[in-house]
Amino acid sequence: GENVEQHPSTLSVQEGDSAVIKCTYSDSASNYFPWYKQELGKRPQLIIDIRSNVGEKKDQRIAVTLNKTAKHFSLHITETQPEDSAVYFCAASGILGQNFVFGPGTRLSVLP
Amino acid sequence: KAGVTQTPRYLIKTRGQQVTLSCSPISGHRSVSWYQQTPGQGLQFLFEYFSETQRNKGNFPGRFSGRQFSNSRSEMNVSTLELGDSALYLCASSFGPGLDEQFFGPGTRLTVL
Questions:
Q1: How many CB atoms lie within 10 A of CB B30?
Q2: How far is CA A80 from the centre of its chain?
Q3: Chain A contact for B107, CB < 8 A?
Q4: Which chain A residue's Cα is nearest to B41?
Q5: Residues of chain A found within 8 Å of residue B35, distances taken between Cβ atoms
Q6: What is the pLDDT along chain B (113 residues), one digit of tens a residue?
Q7: Which residues in chain A have Cβ-Cβ distances shorter than 8 Å to B32?
Q8: Which of A2, B45, B56, B59 has a CA-to-CA distance to B65 between 20 and 30 Å?
Q9: In chain B, where do the E strands start and end?
Q10: Does B105 contact chain A (CB < 8 Å)?
């Protein structure tokens, strides 16, 4: 089955700096890759996603890149703000009915 | 449009008891997935239902079971509760399985004493 690894497990950055979180997956059939943000005490919420026919997607300060050959995808947050502090989960899923498999999460702390 | 709802929000049980958790998906969504979230363990997949059929099952013992009704509402049941079952149980709904955004409910916080 699918296995998703995520690095780093914790990340601290200064406000205004960029943050990058990387994920690798094992199943080459996976073709949907969402990123979820979970603030303390709240439910996970989708912040951006990418499908296998696209190499990069951007939404304001957030971008995701996908390398299907290497089976890895990354989340990039620019100009970080304190409200970006949360746990971020990547996931991989496929059209063939594989369930969503989540990475273990990255705790991002943005220091003022 | 109303979001995903879960009941109850909090639950306290003792070892050996059983528990049933309920999830109502967003209207029109036919796929419901369940996850167990514990500190340090991330989101562990339990099972996924689509059109009343279990499509996928995670690596959990048979004490964990679920079902989905014709209105897409889903329930999960945990029998013979153990201390290690204490966790936040999240359900997520999507229009279809595999390629759609999953919308999470607020979760049910289960504490087993």
A1: 17
A2: 15
A3: yes
A4: A104
A5: 102
A6: 689 999 999 999 999 999 999 999 999 999 999 999 998 678 998 999 999 999 888 889 999 999 999 999 999 999 999 999 999 999 999 988 766 788 999 999 999 99
A7: none
A8: A2
A9: 5-7, 10-13, 19-24, 31-38, 42-50, 53-57, 64-68, 74-78, 87-94, 103-104, 108-112
A10: yes
